[in-house]
């Protein structure tokens, strides 16, 4: 009898193990800005995804800014972060995540005539030059974020230092235009769709852009994952990247603009005629194959280090693993 019981127990363990192995890998992917960040929109095109729900499942996770993702990644609550150039280097150097890897591109700022992040002040306000920001209150979505570092870089060039010369207040992107117009902030950082606020356009003006501050186009946001997760679930990650590239190609193809607008309309609940800007040069550039530009990413991380956010320069080539992406691309006809 004991032998039979043991056989039954062994069989149950074998069945449970097989079922577990056959379950899709759960992958949580971060996003901040709707439409602009891939996790918020590409899974609206599940008809293009041959592996979704089979070898992997995705849970998009919203964050106010990219620095918050460092904590989530460190706690094992996130598998793929859409880190900024700044938060990637901060995560590696300051948070000790030396196993982080750049696995794909998400967006580039100011690339080949495409949009560059904007910084607004009031059109009729007292701020006419960068020097006029001395003593003022500046809004940011998160200190150390992609949109925050350029402010620190440019203001330092003009002799203004954080805490000594100006105050920084963190606020969500969607709240900052109203805070500027109500004079609760003197300066805000913004990106689409929030930069398209008609009241902001009417009453505000752009003081400078990210491209002005960083002196050129920049690999702005990348996908990053930890090497241990990549190695453990490599097959599922290749499947995920194949589906992601297929959806990215579709959304960035001008032939599909009308459908991309309709998807965006459903997603953020705005009329389609308000969304003609999506996936055009009025937004950041996204590579159709999700291939990151590591040279401009290196330049941007160097600026992060030069402005005191990390102690050591980061050699991004050592922290890039594009093999998953490249294997995925080879599969797509």
From N to C, what is the helix and strand string? HEEHEHEEEHEHEHEHEHHHHH
The fourth-level CATH homologous superfamily of the largest domain is Periplasmic binding protein-like II
Derived structural class: alpha/beta
* Shape verdict: globular
Number of domains: 2
For the biggest β-sheet, the strand order reads 3-10-4
Name of the level-1 CATH class of the largest domain: Alpha Beta
The total count of helices amounts to 12
Give me the Rg, rounded: 22 Å
Beta fraction = 15-25%
- Give the averaged pLDDT, no decimals: 92
The name of the CATH architecture of the largest domain is 3-Layer(aba) Sandwich
Helix content: 25-40%
Stretches where pLDDT is under 50 for at least 5 consecutive residues are 1-20
**How many angstroms does the end-to-end distance come to?**
57 Å
Number of separate strands: 10
Task: Describe the largest sheet.
Answer: 3 strands, antiparallel
Describe this structure in words.
This protein is an alpha/beta fold. It has 2 domains: 200 residues, D-Maltodextrin-Binding Protein, domain 2; 97 residues, Periplasmic binding protein-like II (D-Maltodextrin-Binding Protein, domain 2), CATH 3.40.190. 37% of the residues lie in helices and 18% in strands. It has 12 helices and 10 strands. The strands form 4 sheets. Strands 3-10-4 form a 3-stranded antiparallel beta sheet. α4 links the parallel β6 and β7. α3 packs across α11. It is globular. The N terminus is likely disordered.
């Amino acid at each position: 009898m004991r032998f039979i019981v043991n056989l039954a127990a062994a069989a149950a363990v074998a069945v449970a193990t097989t079922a577990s192995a056959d379950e899709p890998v759960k992958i949580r992917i971060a996003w901040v800005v709707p439409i602009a960040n891939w996790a918020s929109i590409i899974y609206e095109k599940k008809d293009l995804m041959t592996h979704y729900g089979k070898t992997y499942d995705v849970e998009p996770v919203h964050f106010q800014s990219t620095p918050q993702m460092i904590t989530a990644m460190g706690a094992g609550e996130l598998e793929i972060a859409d880190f900024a150039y700044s938060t990637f280097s901060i995560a590696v150097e300051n948070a000790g995540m030396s196993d982080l890897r750049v696995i794909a591109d998400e967006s580039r700022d100011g690339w080949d005539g495409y949009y560059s992040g904007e910084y607004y002040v009031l059109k009729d306000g007292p701020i006419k030059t960068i020097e006029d920001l001395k003593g003022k209150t500046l809004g940011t979505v998160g200190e150390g974020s992609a949109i925050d570092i350029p402010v620190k870089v440019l203001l330092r060039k003009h002799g203004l230092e954080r805490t000594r010369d100006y105050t920084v207040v963190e606020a969500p992107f969607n709240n900052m235009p109203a805070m500027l117009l109500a004079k609760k902030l003197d300066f805000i950082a913004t990106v689409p769709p929030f930069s398209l606020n008609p009241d902001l356009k009417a009453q505000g003006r752009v003081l400078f852009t990210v491209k002005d501050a960083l002196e050129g186009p920049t690999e702005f946001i990348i996908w990053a994952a930890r090497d241990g997760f990549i190695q453990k679930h490599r097959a599922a990650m290749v499947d995920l990247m194949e589906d992601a590239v297929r959806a990215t190609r579709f959304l960035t193809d001008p032939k599909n603009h009308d459908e991309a607008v309709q998807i965006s309309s459903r997603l953020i609940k705005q009329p389609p005629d308000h969304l003609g800007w999506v996936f055009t040069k009025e937004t950041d550039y996204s590579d159709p194959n999700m291939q990151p530009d590591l040279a401009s990413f290196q330049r941007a991380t160097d600026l992060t280090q030069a402005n005191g956010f990390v102690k050591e320069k980061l050699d991004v080539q050592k922290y890039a693993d594009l093999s998953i992406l490249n294997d995925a691309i080879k599969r797509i006809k």
